[in-house]
């Protein structure tokens, strides 16, 4: 699945991996987010932190009727108010994707896969 846009000069095609990488980069810069996690929790219930090159494993991009639908899987820091961290992360990801892609983002769903103590 790609994000397509037609202009007077031709067409623009942005891959799903590029959108996922952008969304992953934005959310990991958000306050209270330790990092991205894989969509599948490991068998012992531990969430694996992903490195920058693997952000696509923690992001699902769908093209819905009202616009893009993004699912993000994250690990948050211990001691923060999770609802506030997630709300601010959703706003930040939505804003940056709409600004960068010039396309409506209908949903940003955040799934907290774990909580980590950060030293």
UniProtKB/TrEMBL annotation:
InterPro entries: Asp23
Pfam families xref list: Asp23
Similarity comment: family membership: Belongs to the asp23 family.
PANTHER family xrefs: ASP23_GLS24 FAMILY ENVELOPE STRESS RESPONSE PROTEIN, HYPOTHETICAL CYTOSOLIC PROTEIN-RELATED
Protein name: Asp23/Gls24 family envelope stress response protein
Organism of this sequence: Solobacterium moorei F0204
UniProt lineage: Bacteria, Bacillati, Bacillota, Erysipelotrichia, Erysipelotrichales
């Amino acid at each position: 699945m790609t994000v397509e846009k037609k202009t007077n000069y031709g067409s623009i095609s942005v891959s799903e991996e590029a959108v996922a990488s952008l969304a992953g980069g934005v959310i990991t810069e958000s306050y209270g987010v330790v990092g991205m996690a894989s969509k599948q929790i490991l068998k012992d219930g531990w969430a694996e932190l992903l490195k920058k090159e693997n952000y696509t494993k923690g992001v699902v991009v769908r093209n819905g009727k009202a616009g893009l639908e993004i699912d993000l899987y994250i690990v948050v820091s211990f001691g923060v108010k999770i609802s506030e961290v997630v709300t601010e992360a959703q706003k930040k990801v939505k804003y940056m994707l709409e600004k960068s892609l010039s396309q409506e983002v209908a949903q940003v769903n955040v799934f907290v896969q774990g909580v980590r103590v950060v030293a």
